[in-house]
Amino acid sequence: MNTVNETIDNDFEPAAPSRMAAVVRPFYWSVRREIWEHRALWMAPLVAAALIVLSFLVNALHLPDNSRVLATVSAEQLHSIATGFYGAIAAIIALTMAVVTFFYCLDALYAERRDRSILFWKSLPVSDVTAVTSKLFVAAVVSPAITFVVIVATQLIILVLGTIIMTAMTGNSLALWPAGATLELTTVLLYSLVAQSLWFAPVTAWLIFVSSWVRRSPFMWALLVPAAIALVERVAFGSGYLASMLKFRNVQDFLETAFAAPGVVDTGTTARSDGFNLHLSVPERLIGAADPLHFLSSPHVWIGLAVAAALVVATIWMRRYREPL
Amino acid sequence: MTAAIEARGLRKAFGNNVALDGVDFSIQEGRIVGLIGPNGAGKTTALKAILGLTPFDGELQVLGRNPHRDRHRLMQEVCFIADVAVLPRWIRVQQAIDYVAGVHPRFDRSKAEGFLARTSIKRTSRVRELSKGMLTQLHLSLVMAIDARLLVLDEPTLGLDLLYRKQFYDSLLNDYFDGNRTIVITTHQVEEVQNVLTDVMFLNHGRIALDCSMEHFEARYAEVMVHPEKLVAARALRPIHERQVFGRGVFLFDGIDRTQLAGLGEVRTPSIADLFVALIGPSSGSVQPSVEGTAQQGAAA
User: Fold this and answer.
1) How far is the alpha carbon of A112 from chain B, nearest alpha carbon, in Å?
2) What is the mean pLDDT of each run of 10 residues along chain A (325 residues)?
3) Which of A6, A119, A138, A323 holds its CA 20 to 30 A away from the CA of A259?
4) What are the chain A neighbours of B2 within 8 Å (beta carbons)?
């Protein structure tokens, strides 16, 4: 046995630099394989972006009245409308991506067991740690990164198209170039995506854990278990502590933790005089309210990350012990 | 010689169902071992344990490692094809090559491309578009391009046509096997591996029913088509199995000198399939009219 061990060590424990590569390469290729398999991760936001650009064009060309109204408003108002529209673009694409990522997570370690391809993946020298963390990386890093790139690209396309249309109609194009606001908007967008990824890390990790654990209907289990926990707590202890912990991970609370200003999402009273300014002031208010320090000092963020870490460890264990369905 | 696989008291139970009942075996490096057994005998469980796919009780060392704990390190030196349907259906042929080349330090891309060039598989096809035979060809092309010390094949030729089966075992011996590698094969197509194997192992009800080299197998077991007038003499030598082929008795003997048997009738080496039936079959040891195995027997002899 000793001789076998020695030859293995000599042959397969490479020097330090390539040991780094031995960790990074399988991880890199595992991430690429996720993107090959789950094409919706980049196709869905592109389709959403294409629809936004298309409807913008149809609206601008078929309803020139809107454009003429825009030509008459003040530069300040125009800035506000443009920012609101950029915010709406970001919201639509981010929402699309959230849905796609939700289903990606539920599928991550479930599909490979269902179609037995786990046997192929496990026949290669890729550890369970790499397999699980690469999937988490796709959900928590790659997906927000794609969201960011697609949103910024869509905003730029709209900016260019809007400028061309405005120039053609009115001769006044400068008003559509609130360059400072766009940069601020992009910074806030980046901050929101990073913060959102951290805030929802326990949800992401929970979904991936469910996908590694259940034998069928991951969607049902993902929702049923938290509901059951809350119910049991209510009935058995008469308390709502866990339930409120679970309920706390929602968009409203995220926004209020990441953007330390009360009522940033209180859009109910915003003017709705035309189709453009539906969420008119939200991005503008968010720009001023972004508060990374408040966010990072919130215990909820760190509790969430700890829960996510525990779930990831459990998922790695599941990947090691679970067999094809 | 060192052992590629060493098992001591290997045991695995699913609830009350004991799949492996504390088996001991040792597979030396450079051997081609056939693991033969009826469905539910524990073959798959044994392979899964060897490949680190399932936890187990007892001791098991594969290339000096605990397979379940060290699976991903072990897989640098071990290849396996679990069954034909495990390649992910969405992957493209080119992506499969790129991925294996990316994660496997001992994968030889040009070798895999060479194997694939002999098939009609297109690089841009998705796995779901390939026929069953092409699927196996693709998987084998990937696996045989990996410079592994241990290759495990679970029913490798399932779903392949006759031509490709022959080609598969030829290229396994000529292109892949170099005398240092160890190969473990499970199959129900026993006839086609008989000439490939160096060792054979029978598994039944989670226990090992036979574990011997092919040389030993040939020396130990003999099959005699007994002359009708020698039946009584033949039975006196206590055959382990007796069956009727075209109205004549075919007796299987264990450890009886061949010169002694020559007087009873025509002596030859039994096929693995016939020995398998004799040792494990439902009425092993008693006379039974043979239906299966008769046709192959002529070919094997």
Assistant:
1) 8
2) 41 55 90 95 96 88 68 70 83 94 95 91 92 96 96 89 77 56 81 92 95 93 88 79 69 77 47 40 70 84 92 95 83
3) A138
4) 3-4
